[in-house]
Design goal:
Blueprint (H helix, E strand, L loop, with lengths): L23 E4 L3 H12 L4 E5 L10 H12 L14 E5 L12 E4 L5 H11 L8 E4 L6 H4 L5 H4 L2 E6 L8 E6 L5 H13 L4 E4 L8 H19 L3 H7 L10 H9 L1 H9 L11 H9 L12 E5 L5 E7 L4 E4 L6 H6 L5 H10 L6 H18 L9 H12 L5 H8 L1 H10 L6 H8 L12 E4 L4 E4 L9 H6 L7 E5 L3 E5 L4 E6 L5 E2 L1 H11 L4 H5 L2 E5 L8 E2 L1 H9 L3 H20 L4 E3 L3 E4 L1 H7 L3 E2 L5 E4 L13 H16 L8 H5 L2 H15 L7 H6 L16 H14 L11 E2 L2 H17 L5 H14 L9 E2 L1 H16 L2 H13 L6
Parallel strand pairs: 1-2, 1-4, 2-3, 4-5, 5-6, 7-8, 16-18, 17-19, 18-20, 20-22, 21-23
Antiparallel strand pairs: 6-7, 9-10, 10-11, 12-13, 14-15, 15-16, 24-25
Helix pairs in contact: 1-2, 7-14, 7-15, 8-9, 10-11, 20-23, 22-33, 23-32, 25-27, 27-31, 30-31, 31-32
Protein name: 3-hydroxyacyl-CoA dehydrogenase NAD-binding domain-containing protein
GO molecular function, one term: (3S)-3-hydroxyacyl-CoA dehydrogenase (NAD+) activity
Catalytic activity: a (3S)-3-hydroxyacyl-CoA + NAD(+) = a 3-oxoacyl-CoA + NADH + H(+)
């Protein structure tokens, strides 16, 4: 297989009109094909899922039907909502290929075998519509070879699409065009994949394994080879290739188990002869031969077992004996010291500053990272057209915090090259060219340019229209007035242009403590300078998760010291903050993403609108630590219950409020709400959150994380253009009262009797029911929002004083898990 660098033939028009895909078809119902179909269903595209007819099967669609059934049970979940499975229609290659005529996009995803692909594609092209796009999904087979049987007109509408598994969660989509692929079609498809599929689209050349797998698998094999050479354990190798250097906590071998060891071996076989590091390959082949394929086989490099008391424990493979032994925590002192560094740049410099002759981490990381940097530099002009494409591919495909060239800049290019030469490690000619030109960075420190050794020039780094992070405005690298208006340790107000301010959360784990409350409150007060100067606000951030909730450590310390005035003041301050979000004269749009828990969810509930990322896992989880949502969350959920019941059966103005407050619709809505709060339910997606009452139908979902900030900003503008006026506090809320409270308490008792709720769970749930009922008052009594906030504060303070609540909080802070006591 040739490795000569192909001349780049394509570029993407980043402003192209997105391709219209009204219906799609996926050919191949295996793991990848079925999950691609599920993700198409997630974004609203009706999809045909076809596979071959099994020999002797009574049902010709058996494989596709089974695949859809398995999707419903898959973990992690393949669908945003289980009902979306209905958007997939099963079929087979014998009967249903004519249906492809009605599809705008047909994606072939059968086995990684060129002969099998050729046989199917020869039949498929006869049934394509005149404007249909045909793509092949492959992790590394040559696209030109797959396309050989196709006539010229089809080749213009054909290219490779390399999704990473699972497609719902993995951001990267590599597009690999033929020389004949129509550039306009390619750009239109890229725009569609960016906006609707939520993908980080990277253009790759038709070389073995393309970009991400080419580099990622080489690095994995290098890490494994170094581990064997240096006598390290799997645990030590995973620790050294994990979060310490900005890579996922899985490290090398846990990642291999997740991906599938057979898949890893198959990708390695696509490398040119002798290009993949070799002394680990034979060992890998033996593991595959034994059927230890990773998570799907329940054992690979790691295996879960049950101990003597039935407790689950993890064992690890000893590569010398090929027997499993108990897991041992890696103990590398320099690695532990580096973890205290605030940034990845600092960690890299600390780790690489040590003497490899004396330090285990430095001895491993110097040859590993030098291989990564050299190999990546040599892929410019071959696998990819430029360094930024490689960086984006590795970040999106392998979840790295930095791409190879960003890491090299962070570690210091000239310093590392000098050290590499002193250690007699190879140095790529590409980086020598960079340094010979008088530059010491791949990326220009003063602008969006990157050095390209293929041309010897600084290329502009193209910015995808509609993509932005708060950091872009912090750096002032956009053609708008951009600055930090005010800031503290937990949050900042950042001008993101067009008279919109962004309140960025950036505390540790984005926990909401006094610093966040203070800044948000000072910004959103009706008489503040910010409200006068800005037309609206977005609340969001750049971290992995929106917020883990309130700062429990502050709360626990105050409760244990009996500082009840301090606790009461903190709750009151939090409630005032959420009220300011709700009643701010300017529209406030919260843009959540990832974990959005407890207080983070309460911030969302009070916003004029929410603009969530599709992968938002939101929940009022306070019950898990023995509390109730006390920042206005329980109050807002009651208001949603009242509104939901009124939407189904509007109250008759002639009837007394008590009739509506005790209606079947009201009781049903309260039961659902109590269940959401008392069981600390967390949504599986932004779509799922609508079913929990945490998001509304009016809250639009963003599929691409990179578009979230500007989508939220656009939503603020839409509210302004629509003549936004702030709501007024509700003062005549019909309380469900004693009868509803009795019904809810009966349900809580039955949950306890059935073993679903401990005694303390029931106590927490009864407090939640008490607030949702409006207290022990007559049904239909009219209460205010402030009255409900006072009930919340009463319940929260009471529960803070409970020993079991304090035990729960302490356990969660220590382990990150809930305690059932």
């Amino acid at each position: 297989m040739s490795t000569s660098a192909p001349a780049p033939t394509h570029s993407l028009n980043l402003s192209a009109q997105p391709l219209l895909v009204r219906r799609a078809a996926v050919l191949g119902a295996g793991t990848m094909g079925s999950r691609i179909a599920a993700h198409l269903a997630n974004v609203g595209i009706p999809t045909l899922l076809l596979d071959m007819v099994p020999e002797g099967a009574h049902h010709k669609n058996k494989l596709a039907v089974l695949a859809i059934e398995n999707l419903a049970k898959s973990k992690p979940a393949a669908f945003y909502d289980a009902s979306f499975a209905d958007r997939i229609t099963p079929g087979n290659f014998e009967d249903d290929l004519p249906k492809l005529a009605g599809c705008d996009w047909v994606i072939e995803a059968v086995a990684e075998n060129i002969a099998i692909k050729h046989k199917l594609l020869e039949k498929v092209v006869e049934h394509l519509g005149p404007n249909a796009i045909l793509t092949t999904n492959t992790s590394g087979l040559p696209i030109a070879q797959i396309a050989k049987p196709m006539f010229a007109p089809i080749r213009q509408r054909f290219f490779g699409t390399h999704f990473f598994n699972p497609p719902r969660y993995m951001q990267l989509l590599e597009l690999i065009p033929l020389p004949e692929t129509d550039p306009q079609i390619l750009s239109a498809f890229a725009a569609f994949a960016d906006r609707l599929l939520g993908k980080q689209v990277v253009l790759a050349n038709d070389t073995p394994n393309f970009i991400a797998n080419r580099i990622g698998v080489t690095v994995m094999f290098t890490a494994a080879t170094l581990m064997l050479q240096q006598g390290l354990t799997i645990e030590e190798a995973d620790a050294l290739t994990g979060q310490a250097i900005g890579w996922p906590r899985t490290g090398t071998f846990r990642l291999a188990d997740m991906v599938g060891i057979d898949v890893l071996a198959h990708v390695a076989m696509n490398f040119p002869q002798g290009a993949a590091p070799g002394n680990f390959f034979d060992l890998l082949a033996e593991i595959v031969k034994r059927g230890w394929l990773g998570d799907k086989a329940k054992q690979g490099f790691y295996k879960k077992t049950r101990g003597a008391e039935g407790k689950e424990q993890r064992e690890v493979l000893d590569l010398k004996t090929l027997e499993y032994r108990p897991l041992a925590k890696a103990s590398i002192p320099s690695l532990e010291m580096a973890k205290n560094a605030a940034t990845l740049k600092e960690r890299l410099r600390i780790l690489l500053a040590n003497d490899p002759a004396k330090d285990k981490a430095a001895a491993f990381l110097w040859p590993l990272l030098s291989t990564l940097w050299n190999f990546s530099a040599e892929r410019i002009g071959e696998a990819a057209n430029d360094a930024p494409s490689i960086d984006r591919a590795m970040k999106a495909g392998f979840n790295w915090e930095m791409g190879p060239f960003e890491m090299w800049d962070a570690a210091g290019v000239r310093e590392t090259v000098t050290r590499m030469k002193a250690m007699q490690l190879p140095v790529s000619a590409a980086v020598e060219e960079l340094l010979d030109s008088g530059n010491e960075h791949w990326y220009a420190p003063d602008g969006p340019h990157c050095f390209n050794p293929a041309s010897g020039a600084w290329d502009m780094v193209p910015r995808q229209p509609g993509h932005a992070r708060v950091a872009d405005y912090r750096r002032g690298r956009r053609p708008v007035q951009s600055c930090i208006v005010r800031a503290n340790s937990g949050a900042s107000l950042v001008d993101i242009g067009d008279h919109i301010g962004c309140i960025e959360l950036h505390s540790l784990k984005n926990a909401i403590g006094g610093d966040v409350v203070s800044l948000v409150s000072s910004v959103l007060r009706a008489d503040s300078d910010a409200v006068r100067d800005f037309a609206g606000f977005v609340i969001s951030g750049d971290r992995e998760h929106f917020s883990v909730g309130a700062n429990l450590m502050q709360l626990l310390l105050a409760a244990q010291e009996g500082e009840w005035d301090e606790v009461n003041g903190a709750i009151r301050g939090f409630q005032q903050m959420t009220q300011l979000i709700k009643f701010c004269p300017r529209p406030v749009v919260v843009a959540p993403f990832g974990m959005t828990l407890g207080g983070g969810a309460e911030m969302c509930l009070h916003a004029a609108r929410r603009q969530p990322h599709a992968e938002t896992y939101i929940g009022l989880v306070e019950a898990g630590v023995g509390l109730i949502p006390g920042g206005g969350g329980t109050k807002e959920m009651l208001l949603r219950s009242v509104d939901a019941a009124a939407a189904i059966a509007p109250p008759d103005p002639k009837d007394p409020p008590s009739r509506f407050a005790q209606s079947a619709q009201m009781i049903a809505a309260l039961r659902r709400t109590l269940e959401t709060i008392a069981m600390a339910k967390v949504s599986a997606s932004a779509v799922d959150a609508r079913g929990l009452g945490l998001f509304s139908a009016a809250d639009r979902v963003t599929f691409n994380r990179e578009r979230l900030l500007l989508d939220a900003k656009a939503e603020v503008h839409a509210l302004i253009e629509g003549g936004y006026t702030a709501p007024v506090p509700r003062a005549e809320i019909p309380a469900p009262g004693l009868a509803a409270l009795a019904t809810m308490e009966s349900g809580i008792f039955l949950m306890g009797e059935a073993g679903y709720a401990s005694e303390h769970d029931q106590k927490v749930a009864r407090w939640a029911a008490y607030i949702l009922a409006g207290g022990r008052i007559t049904a239909g009594s009219l209460v205010s929002e402030q009255y409900l906030l006072d009930l919340e504060r009463e319940a929260f303070l009471s529960l803070c004083g409970e020993r079991k609540t304090q035990e729960r909080i302490g356990f969660t802070l220590k382990t990150g898990k809930p305690l059932r006591n």
